[in-house]
Amino acid sequence: MDAADWNRRYEEHGLVWSAEPNQFLAAEVTDLTPGRALDLACGEGRNALWLAEQGWDVTATDFSDVALAKARDLAARRGVDVEWVLADVLDYEPEPRSFDLVAVFYLQVPADERRRVLEKAAGAVAPGGTVLVVGHDVENLSTGARGPRDPEVLMTPETVASELPGLHVERAERVTRTVETDDGEATAIDTLVRGSRR
Hints:
alpha/beta, single chain, 7-stranded mixed β-sheet, globular
């Protein structure tokens, strides 16, 4: 999907996603001291806003101006400051080694594009900093629930771990979360990879 497709999707709903942070983000950053954070492909900003509320200095990027307008509105209502950047994650060039946390959540692009993005994400991690990547796992196609059905935009812990040059991979595994479907609750399978620059 391109920016126009995402704009249409964001225009159809109040919020496409919850206003609450992703559960894995909240769990993984509790042991980190707030500093500079970069949220790549932030959508409506739920993770960026939560990080800002925890004391992080946040820069968040997305290529959907509709999503960023919603994010700005939420930020104003919640009284937090985030630097919102309208940019395609494929073209955006973050400052090298400048962020204490880089978050890439549910980026849905083909594998070759994901590698480019993750290489830049890894390069943006400051010494002592952390990168956190969470996305729809390929196992969702056979045993998981919801999420994209195109295997080209799905991932595995092993492939993501190999796409973070120069970082020490601390965690690379499949994790599950409960999702609501038309038939009730089901389990979605995600890839979660956490790395750091030592």
